[in-house]
Amino acid sequence: DKKIVVLISGSGSNLQAIIDSIEAGTIAGRISAVISNKADAYGLTRAQNAGIATQVLNHKQFADRAAFDQALQESIDSYQPDLVVLAGFMRILTPEFVRHYAGRLFNIHPSLLPLYKGLHTHQRALEAGDREHGCTVHFVTEELDGGPLVVQAPIPVTADDDADSLQQRVHTLEHRIYPLAVSWFCAGRLKLTDAGVVLDGEHLPPSGFR
Ligand code: GAR
């Protein structure tokens, strides 16, 4: 089984979806630890309920971003993970950190990347009048929310949608595509190469698997 470390800052519903998939036997991996930069993140409770080790690293207790990321890296590496999963981890990571985990660092983002990198994605999709919105799992690179895409799930935007209703529907889809991407990786089916993302020996399009 592959070893996974999950980083969170909040509710951890994506963490829960991955825990559930592991327990259901659809991911050939196990979560070695869940690390949060917030002591009150509900995802820590989810991890404890599943018998997973937890750790809090409060970024405010470090002199700067580099010092925090270095401590975070040391903590993660103590578990020797095959895969590091950002699941609502709301911190920008240094290039050094990201490079260290090249090809084994995933993020999930609540938009159809490359649209709406950063925050307030649902509101921005509404304001743009988009007919379609969604979420994306991608490999993390130095460009914020800019790494190669693995899988995207679209939803239609309807006339009576607001940011909350979009967020709810997108979140539900996140809980399907994140375990899927993690299962591919853990089964050895997914690789990041110089020429892009490869799934089962085939190059994915730049938009990822849809
Ligand atoms: C998710 O919607 C995820 O896409 C988003 O935070 C939420 C975490 O929810 N991530 C980002 O915005 C990253 N910039 P969760 O804690 O319930 O999994």
From TrEMBL:
Q: In which pathway does it act?
A: Purine metabolism; IMP biosynthesis via de novo pathway; N(2)-formyl-N(1)-(5-phospho-D-ribosyl)glycinamide from N(1)-(5-phospho-D-ribosyl)glycinamide (10-formyl THF route): step 1/1
A GO biological process of this protein is: 'de novo' IMP biosynthetic process
Question: What Enzyme Commission number(s) does the record list for this chain?
Answer: 2.1.2.2
How is this protein annotated for GO cellular component?
cytosol
Name the Gene Ontology molecular function terms of this record.
phosphoribosylglycinamide formyltransferase activity
Q: Where is this site: Raises pKa of active site His?
A: D145
In this chain, N(1)-(5-phospho-beta-D-ribosyl)glycinamide is annotated as bound at: G12, S13, N14
The chemistry this enzyme catalyses reads:
N(1)-(5-phospho-beta-D-ribosyl)glycinamide + (6R)-10-formyltetrahydrofolate = N(2)-formyl-N(1)-(5-phospho-beta-D-ribosyl)glycinamide + (6S)-5,6,7,8-tetrahydrofolate + H(+)
PROSITE patterns linked to this entry: GART
What keyword terms does UniProt attach to this protein? Purine biosynthesis, Transferase
Q: Give the residues the record marks as binding (6R)-10-formyltetrahydrofolate.
A: R65, M90, R91, I92, L93, N107
Q: Formyl transferase N-terminal domain: which residues?
A: 2-182
Q: Where is the active site?
A: H109
Q: Which family does it belong to?
A: Belongs to the GART family.
Q: Briefly, what is this protein's role? A: Catalyzes the transfer of a formyl group from 10-formyltetrahydrofolate to 5-phospho-ribosyl-glycinamide (GAR), producing 5-phospho-ribosyl-N-formylglycinamide (FGAR) and tetrahydrofolate.
User: Which HAMAP family does its entry note?
Assistant: PurN
Query: This protein is called what?
Result: Phosphoribosylglycinamide formyltransferase
Say which species the protein is native to. Answer: Marinobacterium lacunae
What gene makes this protein?
A: purN
